[in-house]
Design a protein that fits this description.
The complex is a heteropentamer, with 2 copies of chain A, 1 copy of chain C, 1 copy of chain D and 1 copy of chain E. In chain A, 24% of the residues lie in helices and 32% in strands. Chain A contains 8 helices and 20 strands. Chain A has 2 domains: 229 residues, P-loop containing nucleotide triphosphate hydrolases (Rossmann fold); 108 residues, OB fold (Dihydrolipoamide Acetyltransferase, E2P) (Beta Barrel). In chain A, a hairpin with a 5-residue loop joins strand 17 and strand 18. The N terminus of chain A is likely disordered. Chain A is α+β, with helices and mostly antiparallel strands. By secondary structure, chain C is an alpha+beta fold. Chain C has 3 domains: 50 residues, no CATH class; 56 residues, SH3 type barrels (Roll), CATH 2.30.30; 207 residues, Orthogonal Bundle (MetI-like fold), CATH 1.10.3720.10. In chain C, the strands form 3 sheets. A 5-stranded antiparallel sheet of chain C has the order 7-6-5-4-8, with no helix packed on it. A two-stranded antiparallel ribbon of chain C has the order 1-9. A two-stranded antiparallel ribbon of chain C has the order 2-3. Chain E folds into 3 domains: 72 residues; 217 residues, Orthogonal Bundle (MetI-like fold); 123 residues, no CATH class. In chain E, helix 11 runs antiparallel to helix 12. The chains are: A alpha+beta, C alpha+beta, D alpha/beta, E mainly alpha. Chains C and D meet through loops of C and strand 1, helix 1, strand 2, helix 2 and helix 5 of D. The complex binds adenosine-5'-triphosphate (2 copies), alpha-L-arabinopyranose (ARA) and magnesium ion (2 copies). The site of one adenosine-5'-triphosphate (ATP) has 12 residues of chain B, from strand 2 and helix 1. Chain C: One of its GO terms (cellular component) is plasma membrane.
Chain lengths: 364, 364, 361, 401, 474
Amino acid sequence: MNDTSHAAKAPALQLSDIRKSFGTVDVIHGIDLEIQEGEFIVFVGPSGCGKSTLLRLIAGLDDPTSGDINLNGKRVNTVPASERGLSMVFQSYALYPHMTVGQNLSFGLENLRMERAEIERRINDAATLLQIDHLLGRRPGQLSGGQRQRVAIGRAIVREPVIFLFDEPLSNLDAELRLQMRVEISDLHSKLKNTMIYVTHDQIEAMTMADRIVVLRGGNIEQIGRPLDLYNHPKNKFVAGFLGAPQMNFLEGTLEGNVISLNCGMVRDVPVAQPGTGKVTLGIRPENIHVNLDGHGDETVTVQNYEQLGAVTYIYATFPNGDTLTVQHAHQIPLQRGQELGVSFPSEAFHLFGEDDASMELTR
Amino acid sequence: MNDTSHAAKAPALQLSDIRKSFGTVDVIHGIDLEIQEGEFIVFVGPSGCGKSTLLRLIAGLDDPTSGDINLNGKRVNTVPASERGLSMVFQSYALYPHMTVGQNLSFGLENLRMERAEIERRINDAATLLQIDHLLGRRPGQLSGGQRQRVAIGRAIVREPVIFLFDEPLSNLDAELRLQMRVEISDLHSKLKNTMIYVTHDQIEAMTMADRIVVLRGGNIEQIGRPLDLYNHPKNKFVAGFLGAPQMNFLEGTLEGNVISLNCGMVRDVPVAQPGTGKVTLGIRPENIHVNLDGHGDETVTVQNYEQLGAVTYIYATFPNGDTLTVQHAHQIPLQRGQELGVSFPSEAFHLFGEDDASMELTR
Amino acid sequence: MSRLTTFLSRTAGNGPDRAERIGITDVLAYSYLFFGVLIILVPVLWTFFSSIKSDTAVESFDTRLAPMDQISEMIEDVGEKDVWIYTAEDGSTQLVYKAGPTRKVTDVAPVDDPGAVFKVPRTSLAPHEEMRVAVENYLDPILKRNGQDNFHFFTYLYNSVFVTVIATMVTLLINAMAAFALSKYRFRGRLTFTILIVATLLIPSSIILVSLFFVVWSFGLFGSLWGVIIPAAATPTGVFLLRQYMLTIPDELLEAARMDAASEWRIFWRIIIPLSLPALSVLAILSVIWRWNDFLWPLIVLISDPASHTLQLGLTQFAGEFDTNFHYILAMTVVTLIPITLVFVWLQRFITTGIATTGLK
Amino acid sequence: AEIDLMISDVDGKAGLVKELVDRYTAENPDTTITINAVGYNVIREQLAIQLEAGSGPDLAFVTNLGGLNPHYVDLTPHVDAAEWEANYGAVLPWYRAGAPDGIFGFHTEMTVTGPYVNLTMFEEAGVDVPAAGATWEDWAEATQAVMDGTGSYAGMVMDRSGHRMAGPAMSYGAAYFSPDGKLIADDGFKTFSQLMIDWHKSGLMPPDVWPAVSGAKYANGNEMFFNSDVPFYMSGSWNTGNVQSNVGDKFDWTVAPVPCGPAGCGVMPGGAGLVAFKSGDADQEMAAAKFVAWMGGTDIAREWYSKTYAIPAHSGLQAEGLDYAGAGATEAVANGLAAFTAMAADAAEQTPQAYQLQGSPKGFVMYNATVQYIGAALNGELTLDEAMAKVQEELDTNANQ
Amino acid sequence: MTPAGFTVAFAALFWGLGGAIWLLMRRRYTLRQIPQFFMDLLGFPVELAQSLFGRAGVPYALLLPNMLIFGFFTFLPMILNFYVSFTGGASISLFDRPWVGLEKYADIFTCENYLSPKSCSNPGYNFWTGMFNTLWFVLIQVPILCVAALVTALVVNQNIRGRGFWRAMFFYPVMLSPVVIANIWNWVLHRKGALNASVGEARDAMTGLAGLSGFDMVATVIFAVILLVVSERSLRSNDGPSGSWTAVFGVLIAMLVYWSQPLSLIGLPGSGWLGLALAGGLYWSVSTGQSFARMAIIGAGILAVIMLLMIQFDAVFSFGRYRPINWLVTPNTGWPFFWLVFVFCWSHMGFYMLILLAGLQAIPSDLYEAAKMDATKPFRAFYRITLPLIMPTLTVVLVLSLIRSFQIFDEVYLLTGGGPGRETFMVVQNIYEVAFANDHPDYGQAAAGSILMAIVIAVFTFFQLWLTRRQSDL
Ligand SMILES: Nc1ncnc2c1ncn2[C@@H]1O[C@H](COP(=O)(O)OP(=O)(O)OP(=O)(O)O)[C@@H](O)[C@H]1O
Ligand SMILES: Nc1ncnc2c1ncn2[C@@H]1O[C@H](COP(=O)(O)OP(=O)(O)OP(=O)(O)O)[C@@H](O)[C@H]1O
Ligand SMILES: O[C@@H]1[C@@H](O)[C@H](O)OC[C@H]1O
Ligand SMILES: [Mg+2]
Ligand SMILES: [Mg+2]
């Protein structure tokens, strides 16, 4: 996606050493983050890792235990939510069920005692942009999931916020609608060019929408970067495993110098930048493994199960020692459970992780 | 997947001209279906098409308005649900919230006045199989989604039913758990070899789990067949569109003899079995379209948007006339919005649909 | 037996098709309902039918359904006399009046020939009756006719309506405010307040009657309608019910409103109140019932001021030391029933669905 | 001044009160009088509290003449005291609660307890109405015969009131006061109580009145008498008009001389009075007092007594005799009132304690204790001895201190 | 100025005037926003709290009005009650009340024999009679009320036509005032009321009918036909006799035995138990699937025919003349108490029914479908699924109805006046009479009684909550 140019002016949002505890439970453990104006930032991470909490801290719905939040260079820790100039789209949309779509959009503006004419103008603009003009008189209960989603976004837009916050806005939709709304939000971003912060635990959303992804785990940032950078150069095993479906295969083994001997029997030279000795994990993504039906290849594995999705085939196989391997093949292939399969592992697709799970540099 | 041999004996389940109305609303419009012992049958179809209704008719929870239901050759229309020897796993699991897992499993058996020892044996077997031994003393409220799911299946297993019925058992789970449970249920089927009827509207589940898929629409069967047969040879545009994500591309055009002229400008010879004249739709799946970055190819399209998923790239492009095209590319490729892209359409991947949306035979 | 138990265990969710088969279960269910409703309705209807009977019919406990009333006529030179039907031994009948004391053999005279007194056995006399709706039971007190000058129907009605409406509005407002605080804020003392309020559920009003009497008296609320309205406004039931309901309103809505720059009061007014309407209407119904029907407390507080009597207090007027005007009591009872019945008919939808959704449990 | 008057309606007086009030306010335009009509129970149960709380009425018709004394306005300055003493001297002490003087009310009704008899039922059963001087046992026998003969529900009924029972009890020797002036429940009281118990047990007296309710609740037998369910009804003079209007010509009735006992033929005098209450506002008190004074003037009193079919408490009017018939009373009513007046005279001689009891401010303690505990004995809940002890305990704690 | 007047003046100034000024200073209102202005003014204290203390101050401001009223009109009286119970005299001014210490309590507890209220002093006698009656009432009333409410809730939760109507109908009496309820039922239960009239007429009609010549024959034939149909029904199915029809058959047999009194042939009285035993045995043999069940039914059928011929039906249906029952009045019959329980159920059941209905509707219907698949017999589904799941709601209903039953006063005072005698004399009536319906109001005594009653209620409630501690939702 288009990369927004990072200007030299104050970042749209800056978090410094943000911490948050609920009672005795520490949830956010000191987070530093800078977001530039116009960026589309996605927070991903497993459930309970603190994504929503972080977003709510930014929004001003909760107060950080310590640390500073700066918006456009101004500290806003004590500014109430309504005055930070942010808009939030909630996971459940949180549309006011008893108001019409129009009233939902105007409520916030009325609270600001804006002139009626201006309110009208903004609502109409937003409604046109989101193609919900014809729905203004309806109640949320009379809308489909996708329409509700758009109203929720509309409510965020009319306030003309400096930053949009989204908390898993698509998680309640079914797969089809999700795909569609995903595209719409991306389009919106390229039209409005606002800063957007988007929380999800769906890594497809993260991959496809983000300018930069922030991967969170247990209240800490694991890695920040552009989607494909993260995909191709994960900083550690967690990030590697978290992005990509089916998951990256992890094969345990030991490294001696440049040579890696895996428990499954495979022995390979790997271009390690700093050769050494120790336990390592070799990572390889399912789509990078080549399948030879005739049984030839680097290694032979046994098909345990497979799934024909039409466009692709997932193969779940085992090495003789029992290590499992998932292979994604881009075509339909005839398979049998128990069948022997030759697979080859192109070493340029290798990822190597040390005992501390950190990525090891490879020279390629 | 393994194909169960269709023995000559009476089918495990036979539906003849089943109809069902609720009040004045006809929901099922005459369904005929035969299911052989040991088959894994999946009902798919859009929401409201009657999948659950059909399942409930089979289970005996509702009575058909007309038509016969035969189990192993015996008409069971008037046999109460409990005596049909079926087990059902509900979408919401319907676990008894006030009973422990063990009591949930034994409740049905106690109703049958089974010996305590036998009950214990069955519960232990099922619990071992499903790895829920350690949960037997807990209440459903203390279980995770996946565990509940397993308990629900356990409750179905202990009754040793002739047929298992599943009503969207995975729809309440999150994506990860869903994938995992999907594999578990498939494994279970290959272990137990029972007949299973499985309702879903998730086509990935349908594709990966079914021996045969029954595609329903508006209370009628659209097509029955093995997953890849349906994927590769859909009987009509509905089935073609319903299976596969991203959806098959449909390009409108006209056929004259063997030549198809599409609105987007493309003109191609197609090996139509019965050449003719008229409006047609050309279908081609996104993964069958080849991308040439250098702009060469059958046609040139403009990239509107693209999604880099790491393993694959989705490209959303438009023809000069505005027709849209989705392309699935099996690798990461560098792209720009607005970029021109050459695409080629291998004619062996063509599907052709007549004005009545029915598939037209192609000779290849 | 097993059928009987089917009926015990059935709940909602049996498809509508099940109802098409009329089984023994349905017969049992409908019989139960039918008799239940009979037991509920018959006394009420009986009261209504009695209320349109004449004074004498009521006082003599006439149990016939139709309102029969003995006719009396103005007999010349004699005065107003009840008319009896005399059945002679030959079966012929004649309208007569009693021309002397009632004895085994009584003097009577034909109505149309007052002079012709003759003797007949008492047992051959039957009252001469007509069917007549005794509208005077209603009209006398309402229009202050027939010596009912001291029954100020419209004052009582006004007071009852005033107490009911104002008390209900105040109750709804302050209970909703309290429930909002207890359901949507985390603050020091929340648990204490909640427990205090739930504990009030356990304090019957009759127990504190004596001291409440002292308190209200020292507030100077005696004889004032406010003395009835205010003490009853903060109902624990209401707070409890609304709180349970408000707990189900997603916090995200409030947060959305906060992002929308709404003040907390505005959130309450614009978001919480409209969304709690089902629970509020249940409480409104309950409050209307309570306040409209209140008797003992208003009796203590209001009795001294005739201008602030409510209908329920007015009703007591018909019971004297020596005599009780049952016909008026019945008629006015029916009158007090009417508004509550109308409210009931109008709101019964909310009652049945509302309570079910309020989480009043 | 604006003053209010509390009255229990229903008994037919409120209309007349209204008329008189209108007349009075026409003569005294600076006074407005609001009528607060309430149920009788309200006056019995609530008035004292209202007064205590300072929210009571300015005027009321009361029956608890002595008990409310602390709240009365002394009318002495507003009336011709000598004339009032002369006219109402017999009843004025009843309002004084033991104090030696003060004029506290206009006795609106001089009442005497006594029996009504359904002559038609007696005739039907072929039973003779017992003659004057017959004892309660004679009457029990006779009414039992009527009951048997007519299949009526009961033979005798008496209001559930300690006041009603006092007269008969005195006939059987109940002294009610010990020589040192304390209230007592003695053997005479016990003897008649035993008779009541026997009659309820045998069904001669119906369970609907005395045993039917509990505590000090009042109940009367009107409905039963009016419907010919019982031929004998121990009530009182105040009820005459009411009996007349309710019975009509359904049957013949009369007021019989009260049954007697070994100690005489006891009846209780009594009545109700119009009193003015202290309100702390001198104007208001004066206006209220003046209205009472006006009402008690001989002319208005005459009109009042005759129109309400009441025995006058005014000695002059007593001597003069009232023209009830002119006020619309039937012969039966007029005869009845005459009979009651005669009984009162007898009782004054034979059972003087009746007047003493009526004048005692603690009379109500006795009346309440009677219905409460003798009532309990009628149900078998207490034995008579236990009931007697409880009555005495009640008297000792609440009256004799 | 009265405290009330002062409060009103203060509130008017602070709220009305202060609020308006404050609001107008901070915000501009257009004409269209006048309603909004008044709304803001209403919530002015809350707005003020928010602006002074932030969001943390808001809940306190919101709670204030409610808690003020609770404080003054519930908690303060509660505390005053303690004080009053230690004072004597008849004055209503607290300062004029002499301190008497525990005297009022001592009066209540002055008893010779603590098991017999009548051995107590008069205050004790009245209090304990009321208390024991109330306890007795609660013990009988609460289970009956709850069962009736539950059964009704179950029925109206069915898939029946006009559900809303039935539900509403059962709720209707809840809306009636105690005065109205008492009037209505007095009217029905009076010696000459509707109930006696209709029972009398029905009974006379039956007796009259039975006296018709030929009635014996007709009744015998009708009964024979019913017997035939029922026994055929119970034997009809191929897989063993039908349980429900056998039950009906059993009832018929029991009736026949009762009427024909076969044991009187050998000079023994009372054959009723024999019929019940026979019916029970039949049902047992069928329900447990005994092999001899068919034979037993046939045998019983033959026996039934013999007994049928022995019966004199016009004697069976002759009840004699009906003597009206004085339902609310006759002492020592139990009727007044019965009707009190009945009327209380009648007027309160609808409320608890609705609460239970809400509980029932919260039970997901798919549990019943799962149970159906699990071959659960309906009754088992009731007590293994419905009952446990409705338990929390039922507990709430139990507690609420217990508290409410303890407080019974209006209804009973107006309906029976506590009588006959003291059969329905409840503790609240005692408190009321001591304080308010007395010529020497004894507030101290009444307050002491209130405190004792509060203690009893609290003990009961907590005991009940403790018993059901795991289920309660409270
Ligand atoms: N108000 C609270 N009090 C106590 N703990 C809380 C609170 N809110 C959140 N937590 C805890 O903080 C952690 C992070 O929660 P958060 O909602 O931020 O997770 P998340 O990343 O958004 O997860 P999900 O993907 O499930 O939404 C969780 O362990 C949660 O239990
Ligand atoms: N009890 C009922 N009464 C009336 N209509 C019903 C009833 N149950 C189902 N329907 C209707 O029948 C149609 C089919 O419903 P069904 O539940 O079988 O759909 P489904 O295919 O399972 O849908 P989903 O994927 O959303 O579960 C729907 O239109 C539904 O509204
Ligand atoms: O007066 C009502 C009472 O009837 C109800 O039971 O609880 C709340 C009180 O305010
Ligand atoms: Mg979250
Ligand atoms: Mg479904």
